[in-house]
Amino acid sequence: MGQKGENTRREIINKSLMLFSVKGYFNTSINDILEETGLTKGGIYGHFNNKEEIWNAAYQEAASIWKKIIFKDLKPVTDPLTRIEMLIEHDMRDYIGSNVFPGGCFFLNMLVDLSGQSKEMSDFVWNGFEGIMRIIESWIEEADKLNMLKPELNRKEISKFIVISLNGTAALYAATKDRSLWQTTISQLKQYISLLRK
């Protein structure tokens, strides 16, 4: 594929990502994508076979953007609980609070939109949520091995609680644009994490 073709493909992905973020998968039509990109059907179908393929590419792009934001500067951090606190800040302030996608959290929106409509697609999205829970759980386990935690904490429950809190805030912030919601979530989750320490 030449540079022009690559640019066209990127344009389709980026414009579709914004449409899916605001309208959802099922309310976004190929005609919406045609209108947004200014392409013909041939221009779209020269790169993608169907709307689901476009959505898959948009999902991968959204995941790449999200990962760059939430994992920024975490690698050199040796304290796993500080790493979790930073991830929370990045997710709330730099992803949700910065309105990276116009409809709010792309992944939360897709999970709600696809649930009950396409089990395969909603399971795919849910797998991403489980992935971040596993990462947080592994950092809690690391903290435990470093003898940083109070005894007998349930790592799985802690990681679920953090992810549930983040996504509850994401939904409320998308509806209200009240910055105090994510600011409060950052401070309260940091306080919660501090209580896990010995």
List keywords for this structure.
198 residues; mainly alpha; Arc Repressor Mutant, subunit A; Tetracycline Repressor, domain 2
Explain this structure.
Helix content is 74%, strand content 0%. With 198 residues, the chain is mainly alpha-helical. The protein folds into two domains: 3-56, Homeodomain-like (Arc Repressor Mutant, subunit A, Orthogonal Bundle), CATH 1.10.10; 71-196, Tetracycline Repressor, domain 2 (Orthogonal Bundle), CATH 1.10.357.10. Helix 5 (80-96) runs antiparallel to helix 7 (119-145), helix 5 runs parallel beside helix 8 (155-176) and helix 7 crosses helix 8 (155-176). The chain is elongated and about 60 Å long. The model has no long low-confidence stretch (mean pLDDT 95).
Question: Biggest β-sheet, characterized?
Answer: none
Task: Name the helix and strand elements from N-terminus to C-terminus, one letter apiece.
Answer: HHHHHHHHH
Proportion of beta-strand residues: under 5%
Uncertain regions: pLDDT < 50 for 5+ in a row? none
Q: What order do the helices and strands come in, and which of them pair?
A:
Blueprint (H helix, E strand, L loop, with lengths): L2 H21 L6 H8 L3 H5 L5 H20 L9 H17 L9 H9 L4 H27 L9 H22 L2 H18 L2
Helix pairs in contact: 1-2, 1-4, 1-6, 5-7, 5-8, 5-9, 6-7, 7-8, 8-9
Please outline what is shown here:
This protein is mainly alpha-helical and 198 residues long. Helix content is 74%, strand content 0%.
